[in-house]
Prior knowledge:
By secondary structure, the chain is α+β, with helices and mostly antiparallel strands. The chain has helices at residues 28-43, 45-52, 62-65, 71-79, 85-88, 92-118, 205-209, 219-229, 259-274, 284-287, 293-296, 302-306, 310-313, and strands at residues 123-130, 136-137, 151-152, 168-176, 181-185, 187-191, 194-203, 233-240, 246-252. Helix 1 crosses helix 2 and helix 1 (28-43) crosses helix 6. Strands 1, 2, 3, 4, 5, 6, 7, 8 and 9 form a nine-stranded mixed sheet that branches. The protein is globular.
Amino acid sequence: MKVLTKSNVQFENIFVKDNIDKSNKSMLLTDLLDEYIYETYNKSEDHRNDAYGEKLERYFHPSQLGKAFCARKLVYEFLEAPFNEDLKFYSALTHRVFHNGAYTHKRIQSYLADLDSFTKGKCKLIGRWRCVCGAVYGYAKEGKKENEFWVPRPKKCKKCGVDGRAMEYKEAGIFLPDLRIKGKMDGVLEWKDEQWIIEIKSINQYQFQSLKNPPDYYIPQSDIYMMGSGIHKVIWLFEDKSSQNIREFITFHNIKNIESIIKLLVKVNKCIDEKKLPKRIEDKKLCKPCEYRGFCANEYTYEFIEKKKYLDEVGL
């Protein structure tokens, strides 16, 4: 049997009919899938937004801030400055991991939404919902706070009449305009007349076996959610990717967990308002893995980057 390689075969020829009694390992389809995933979810804004949520342009997301240390990098991200694709773009494998985590969230959120009817209204998942027809529920009106409008899953759509179980949970949003923070929590649960933030994480079996508390690197993100929502209690649900076992933890708001992040963001937003770049950090260990290190080496001004004048230098 002829060995098939990328150079001598078209995709439609990978389905080999000879030697059907013997299994043959072919990387051609997986190679094609890897290429599709890498190109699509790194470079297509629409696909990224569909997979990972709406784009938060001109705002900072809590997930950006948990390990943030460099004000200059945050300003580059805000301005959408050019970056090193090899350091910024994720592999196809990493995107598959992200997608698996996103589907885990949707599955557990659907369980939580069903608790409304199961508990006869005593336990309800509230937030924002989108019907298949495009109608939305629980979204804040202009000038109003998000959490004043979060609702349980509607029984049916007022616009098209579809059963509410067909609606997608779009999560509960927070907005801290003074810090330019926008984000979406995994869920908000009304339980026994109290509100709890829900954080859902899927982890591998080795992490799960040793899990005794939520990892420290998740805590700042959850404290930002607590500060933004005014809900100061979090229920963590960690699911083992291998066994689907779940462990639950509860944490409470502690402003000390995010004092350094707030201080950093105050500095970043002052630079944005004044249209100035923060000073460059001179630390090889910290700068080496940064996707902006090549761009950062140039003495570009804030206005130069904002107006994308660097494109003229490469003839674009």
